[in-house]
Amino acid sequence: MKRSARLSVALHALVHLVDKPEAVTSTILSECLMTNPVVVRRVMGELREAGIVSSAKGHDGGWRLTRPPGEVSLQDVHAALGETLLLRAESDPGDTACTIVRTVDRVMTDFLADAEALLAARLKRISLGDLARNSAHDHKTISGV
Fold it and tell me: What pLDDT does 141 receive?
């Protein structure tokens, strides 16, 4: 199973919206993200449903943040996309009536749920504003500005 890159796409796009008073189009975002505008629209549409961004059509249309970047946690973004961060490799369960198969499945499900909760808690402590500041700092360091 291929790991989803939607969280990375969403975060990358959102950082591009930080400190932008004007709306940014899906086409411009797709060029920054090196992906198709349709991918951007799908991901951003889910963020719009969660109230993280808004959109407008037509001249001067595009995407805007609806809240200050410091008030949007990475967990907010993750939750808006509705997917897990961890993938469980599926194996042949064998006989589901077997107590060993059921026990292994229960233990792995509990373990992954605990790990997801830890990751979610960590994402909650980081805001979009933090990410944007770190990105600006890294950019200056890399470019020598």
Answer: 40
